[in-house]
Amino acid sequence: MPCRVPHRSSKISPVNTFSGFGGTLCIIMVKKKRLRLIAEMARKVRAYRELKSRPRESQKYALDYETMRRPLTGKMLPVLAWQDVRKESRLFSLLAGMRLFGVGRMFTRKSWLEDHNEASYWQITKVKVDYTAENMDHGKAWGFLTFKGKKESEMKEVDKVMYHDWRLIPKHMEQQFKDFEPLPEPPVRYVPYPPLLRAMMLAQRKTGGSAVVEEPALPLKRDVVLNKDYFRRQEAERRSKAGTAV
Question: The organism sits in which domain of life (predicted)?
């Protein structure tokens, strides 16, 4: 069997052929890829410089408390946040003054206390402090989140650490937060319609001139009003089906 030789323009070395036992064996020597060490090193240097030139957390979230602007971006904080910025603290402002940077302690937020009746808090398990910050009040923290009485089993990074509404839970109140039992969730009574049926219902409302903008929902259980007329109709239907006794 003849062995096909690759085209001259391909980057493959010549073909070596060996004959024997009534056949032909073709061995193609593939050319090795040329290593560009200088280009690879230059790419790593550029990536390292970009990483080093990124602003740190202390620079990114620095705040001028007189003008309420961030010096890095020049953006002004919302007016509704000024009161909390002046009175409340960020998470790392509390952790910086605690033993072991607050590892093992519980923290909550002012917005959680005002908006939810259920216990919501973070239990800190790991802290990575930015030692380049002036007061070491920046960095990253990890822990277990309990939101509305439901504790998550996976440790994750604490978000919104730069917000000015963090509060430390006193030790004599920690057990009260831990012992909170959330109320059972109410059963699901309505489910959304299938996409095609939902689109048909919305189109029908639009053509009919209805101003109702409620999302159509399909009840899982039919509510029947049991009154005297209902039982009378049931009895009349039963008699009409059974017929008159002779």
Answer: Eukaryota
The C-alpha atoms of residue 33 and residue 10 are separated, in whole angstroms, by: 13
Number of DSSP helices (H) and strands (E) in the chain, helices first: 8, 10
Answer whether 119's CB lies under 8 Å from 149's CB.
Answer: yes
Contact 121, 146 (CB under 8 A): yes
Count Cβ neighbours within 10 Å for each residue of 18-41 and write b for 16 or more, e otherwise. eeeeeeeeeeeeeeeeeeeeeeee
Structure tokens at 166: 């963090």
For residues 176-195, b (16+ Cβ closer than 10 Å) or e, as one string? ebeeeeeeeeeeeeeeebee
Q: What DSSP character marks residue 194?
A: P
Q: How far apart are CA 119 and CA 181, in angstroms?
A: 9
20, two tokens: 């024997």
CA gap 5, 12 in Å, rounded: 10
pLDDT in tens, 33-90: 676 788 888 888 988 888 888 888 778 888 888 888 888 888 888 888 888 888 888 9
Q: At which residue do the structure tokens 């073709």 appear?
A: 26
DSSP structure string for 57-110? HHHHT--BTTTTB-TTT-PBPPGGGHHHHHHSB-HHHHHTTSGGGGTT-EEEEH
Query: Taking the model in full, what pTM does it have?
Result: 0.58
Q: Write down the pLDDT at residue 233.
A: 85
